[in-house]
Amino acid sequence: MSLIGVFDSGVGGLSILDEALRQLPQHDYIYLADSANAPYGEKSGAWIAERSLILCKYLADAGCDAIVLACNTATAEAIKQIREQLQIPVIGVEPGIKPAAMQSQNGVVGVLATEATLKSDKFNALLATLPNDCRFIKQAGAGLVPLIEAGKADSEEALDLLAKHLEPILEAGSDTLVLGCTHYPFLRTAIRKLLGDSITLIDTSDAVVRQLKRQLELLASDDKLTIQDHGSVNFVSSKDDAVLLQMAQNLMHSNLEMHAVKSQMLGNIK
Predict the structure, then answer these.
(1) By the 8 A CB rule, do 114 and 41 touch?
(2) Rounded CA gap, 220 and 209, in Å?
(3) Of 56, 64, 71, 134, which residue is the catalytic one?
C-alpha cells in the first residue's frame, strides 16, 4: 500500500482520481485542489511553475510515495522543475494528441485545452513529433474551467460557451476531439448533447493511471505491503474543503463510501 498525491488547480484532477480509485483502490490518496487560485490556464508560466512546485513539495512532505500532477497546465509549465526537486516519482498528464492522431479517420483532430497548455513549449514539442498528415485544430477553452469549478458543467451557460469553442473544430471537419484539460471530461454530457456520437473523445485518465501503477510496482517493497481492499482519501483544498468533498461526490463515479474519507483546508505553506 502506498500514499499517492494527486494535485490539480481545482476539481479537474478528480477525473484522474476517479480512474485511480477504479484501478488501484487499495492505496491511500491525498487529493490537493488549489481552488483558491483556479484556473491556472490563464496565469503566467512562472507563477504556475512556482506554485505547483510548492504544492508538490507539500505532498512529498506529507509522506506521498508518488505524485500525479493531474493538471495539463501545471504539467506543461512545471513538471521538469518538480522532478528535479523531488526524489519520488511524479507522473504528469498531457493532451492525448498522439492516440488521437492514430484513431482519426480523416486526419483532422480538434484539441480543446487551456491557453497556457496550447502555448507551452512541452505541448508544441510533442506536436512537432507527430506526422504532418494529421491536422490539429487548437482551441482554448476560455471560461470553461470556472464553470466546472462552480458545479455548472451541465448548465445552459456551459453548453452555450462550449458550442462557441467547438465551432471552429467542427467547421474544420474534425472527427476526433482531444480533451486537453483534466476538467474537460466532466463536459462529456454537454459535448454529447451538442454533437451526439459524431466525434470520438480522447482523454488520458486511463493511460496516466496505468503509468502510476507501473511506478508503484517499481517502488513495491515488503514493508509497504498491507492487505486491504480500499484505502483512504483525504481531500485538501486551499479554498473550501467541504465544497471540494461535495464536488467529488457529485462528479466522481467511484463509491467514496467504500473508502475512509476526510477533508481539510490547506494551511499556510512555504
Answers:
(1) yes
(2) 16
(3) 71
Q: Is the dihedral of CA 186, 191, 197, 201 positive or negative?
A: negative
User: Which residue of the set 56, 64, 134, 181 is catalytic?
Assistant: 181
Alpha-carbon distances of 198 from 75, 105, 119, 141, 170, rounded to whole Å:
30, 12, 28, 20, 10
Q: What is the mean pLDDT of residues 116-134?
A: 92
Active site residue 56: no
Mean pLDDT of 77-93: 96
Confidence grade of residue 219 (pLDDT, cut at 50, 70, 90)? confident
- Would you call 64 a catalytic residue per the annotation? no
Q: Which domains does the chain have, with CATH numbers?
A: 3-93+205-265 (3.40.50.1860), 97-202 (3.40.50.1860)
Residue set of the binding site: 8-9, 40-41, 72-73, 182-183
- The reply to whether the predicted model has a pTM over 0.90 is yes
**Can you tell me the distance from the alpha carbon of 158 to that of 143, in angstroms, rounded to the nearest whole number?**
9
**Which cell numbers hold the place of 88?**
519520488
Q: Which residues are annotated as a binding site for substrate?
A: 8-9, 40-41, 72-73, 182-183
User: How many angstroms separate the CA atoms of 198 and 127, rounded?
Assistant: 24
